Each structure stands twice: as C-alpha cells, then as structure tokens.
Amino acid sequence: MRITQYAQGQACWVELASHDWQGAQAFYHALFGWNAVEMPIPMGHFSLFNLQGDDLGAMYQIPQSESQTPSHWRIYFAVKDIDASIAAILAAGGQLHMGPHVVGDAGVMAQVSDIEGARFALWQAKHHSGSRRQGEENTLCWVELACRRPSHEADFYTKVFPWTTVTSDVPGIDYTEWQTEGQSIGGMMKIMPEWGDIPAHWMPYFRVADCDDIAAKAQALGAQLCVPPSDIPNVGRFAVIADAQGATFAIIHLAHNENE
Q1: Nearest-5° angle of CA 83, CA 87, CA 93?
Q2: What sequence ranges are listed for the domain VOC (predicted)?
Q3: For the chain, what percentages of helix, strand and coil (3-state, to nearest 5) are there?
C-alpha cells in the first residue's frame, strides 16, 4: 500500500543504526530486496532504504565514539506539532534525548524515550511524509512495545498520542493493541522472565510471503533466530531475528495473505 501522509501517532518511518553499514546494506538487500542509496552527510554514512524506488526507511553507521551502543532499529511516529508532542512526553514522565532537529526541507525529528526507557522518535513532516509503502510484502506492517509495566505504559502513550488500547483475543497471550480511529496500529506485551534482563524496547515487524523461508535465509546470511518461526492463532506465523550486527526485528506472514 502506497502512503502519502500519516495521521498523528502512526508509525511512519524506521531507521537502522549499524556498526557495519556496508554489511547491513548487503544483508537487507539479500533478505528483502531493499536497495540502499547513500546520502551525503558531513561525517559518517547515511543511506535510504527503498523498494522499487519508494523510500522505506534509513540506515546510518554508528560513530566509533559510540562503540558501546548496540546496533538497533528505531521507530518514528508521525506528529503534527513536535514541540507539543515533546512537552506531552516530558509531562508524562518520558525523556528527550536528541532534538528537535530540522532535517533540511524533509521535516523535523526528535529522539525520546518512555517511562521505562524504551526509545522512539518523532517526525513532523514537511516535504517527506515517511515510508512510502507499508503493509505489503517486505515492508513495515506492525510495531510492538515490550515492557515490564504494561498498565503504566498504556497510561503514558495514551497521554502522548491519540491512542486507545484494546486487549487482543489471541489465545494464551496477554497482548494489548494500540488503536487510533478504531484501527490497530501496533501492540504491547509484557517482557517475560525467560527473556532475561533486556530493556524495554520497540520492535518493527516486516511482512513476508513465507516466514520459514525468510528466517532460513536470514540465518544463511549470518543472522540469529531469537524466536524461531512460530504460529500465532488466527494471526499468522512470525519469527524474531537479530541481524548479523545484532539489530533485532520481526517478520510475519499474515494468515489472511492466503485469501488475498
């Protein structure tokens, strides 16, 4: 689905921070067919991921001065007034880490975190609304927050964005869906003890035609499976993958694909 604008609070962009920008370009091109177009910046490397010419997200090389920062994906949410959104985040107990910064004539961005420290970014568009495609094969289709206090996080995000929450009907899973205007745009689940001492985080899901095939391909390309291909009743089949540099993301084959 091609997209030209985003509503307040919708996930509109993803950005990969990697310790090996050339390796990451090769990995995601082989896995999803994404092309990477390098953009000139004063220092370091910055590229735009695209699919058949449509921008999907971005990638940058983590500076050597930040060698302790792990490779990671960052999710951007669309806002109409970035200053007002930052003020709401601070008032709700979140933090501002970077910005707001003007990005040429494309828009204005800021990096923030919620009350458990899960980082995300804000994007106030000017001439660049964000990802031009979502919800189709090899593009972003879902975003998910893993945290330890879901009720507190629900209170935080419903103060920051025009979101409501609804309990998912997936059997055996305590799962919350984020909704705006009656449409589910993402989810939230509690970090389980068996996951270990991991921080709260947002994770992108990319839609794929065959979960098992893409998971196997990712392993062949040097990735690790954090969660092997598994079925979610009435939803589809998913896997969680750490790429060759350790950046974590999920893939999902939606069950209704078969009937499209």
Answers
A1: 145
A2: 10-125, 139-254
A3: 20, 45, 35
